[in-house]
């Protein structure tokens, strides 16, 4: 097991009707900016619940933060924060709104060009950001209980990530009832996103971290179990609750402790979103199978363990089990309506791999758990996923 | 799934050689009291590592905190805290030392008779206790990452528990190397203790909390897997690391969220320790099988799930699987050298059940996840375990 540090101070308030509890959590003397996305919170009742919970506080609001939160839009919110002397942020949304809020929490206290925070990047320690909380409306990214975020810049086509221990939400309210109004396509994306998060922290090489492995497998098994219920049946509160908690636990830091992590699938996936606007979760399902096939030699022990424990595949050599595990993974993504080939999303895929190779070469990026995956390897992986 | 709140701000520093990192974690301007137990830390090298990490700080020390930390001894430590103006505590030990330290952290700031903190009990919120950290030397209780504690009072034979969100350790250092010098009997106790902690949070009734169930099963499976290696083989760092992390995760709050919890086994077990001085973990192994048999009607779904998932028992009715699960549990305790009948520990057991019945009746205690288990039920359970 590798040495590790773990600290996650976010307070989770989980359950039906719990948004009201924000009233006890946010200090009475702050000026709050409520941040949200496309405005669905104004039709599904969440907005009213938040306003009711904040009664008596000075509040402003800023809506319109898009999926893949855009730097240009966030700069508008930053103006509001400065003009209105905002000193507390409340994200009401999914990963995009929460990620954007984290960037704003840091940017509000940063002297200098805000883009530096992402470009350098600047690690944000405690006291270097405004305090903020979240009301999660779209389970997927885990951003509600971690300190990382990803921001896109339309002008340059960049999608960069940053973070730091000063960017944990103070409180995150997780009410599974919000899942009731989420379109099935977004639920499928959330399942794929959380599942891929686990894969990035699991599909590396064995380090005898038995408990962490079993926790990761627990999340994947639960996601597989709830997926057909979430997508094919009427809303069920308990099923939605498991979905929500799986998404949070998949990326709150716990399962990565003591084990190597990969994240190459995310690095490549981000480029597919930047180039083609494909939903983040879907880009991960496109890249993952090719990534694991390309790296089968170094990942075969964990791939075979995955095949055995998650899918009950006990026959065959380690390599054969590993390949069968990848096939099962593809079948799972297909079962939730997510195609795993780039050509199923766009006809303009030619040249995409070369562009990603060039970008990663410019950034001097070496990827994977060994940091040995070159830009040329990346090109091959992306081509395998066409 | 039940509504829940979860916040655990303790920073875990895990791994070989990490005690030195305390140097960056404890503020430079505090007066530290180092608390420890029987003095084994002075022979196994941990004491030197701690002193080295605290170089430059003002330190005092207090040794001799016994297993089942005694109120009378702790009052002596409280005197030192007050006389020396101590404002930071460092527990270097197992659950007893850490529990004692938590009580002292609260007692140091409590005005009035310190026993009230346990007797009322007084819930300790943030700011109501001295800050403290821990260096874990004996994995078992999980006290290093939770905010509860248990104190015994020799004079009255009482063993009471208390806690509150102000009693999380700031930092806990978990170096699996400490396991190297722990006697096998104590390791067996640690395994039984952690296993029993999971049982108390798992063996209730189903609430569709699929992920929590799987996390609990992950801990029990890992404990079962490492137990023979821990007890029959030479020290192995990775195996010790899994043991240590299992003990922490078994009682850091995570697996109890969204599910009912029982804790009747602990309530009864505490009385066996108070009456006969039997090791805490062993009292749990004595009571658990009888408790589950007595309550098989209300616990049979989870018992059967345990039998199926943990022990692969798929044949028979739900009741039959439940009973087989209990038998497997007993066999597991026996396999780590822990007898499961009170008469294997003492010949003076007659009348013990009646005394516990009387004590619980005086306290008006109703136990179990439904709070329906009467003192008379408790008497029967204890008699079943003779």
TrEMBL record, chains A, B:
GO terms for molecular function, please?
alcohol dehydrogenase (NADP+) activity; butanol dehydrogenase (NAD+) activity; metal ion binding; methylglyoxal reductase (NADPH) (acetol producing) activity
CDD domains per record:
BDH
Query: Does Kinase appear among the keywords?
Result: no
Its keywords, alphabetically, are: Oxidoreductase
Q: Which SUPFAM superfamilies match?
A: Dehydroquinate synthase-like
Q: Where is the Fe-containing alcohol dehydrogenase-like C-terminal domain?
A: 189-385
What InterPro entries does this protein map onto?
Answer: ADH_Fe/GldA, ADH_Fe_C, ADH_Fe_CS, BDH-like
Q: Does the keyword Oxidoreductase apply?
A: yes
| Record-annotated Alcohol dehydrogenase iron-type/glycerol dehydrogenase GldA domain positions | 9-176
Cellular component terms (Gene Ontology): cytosol
Q: Domain of life here?
A: Bacteria
Q: Name one Pfam family in it.
A: Fe-ADH
Q: Which family does it belong to?
A: Belongs to the iron-containing alcohol dehydrogenase family.
Q: Which PANTHER family match?
A: ALCOHOL DEHYDROGENASE YQHD
- What name does UniProt use for this protein? Iron-containing alcohol dehydrogenase
Annotated organism of origin? Chryseobacterium lacus
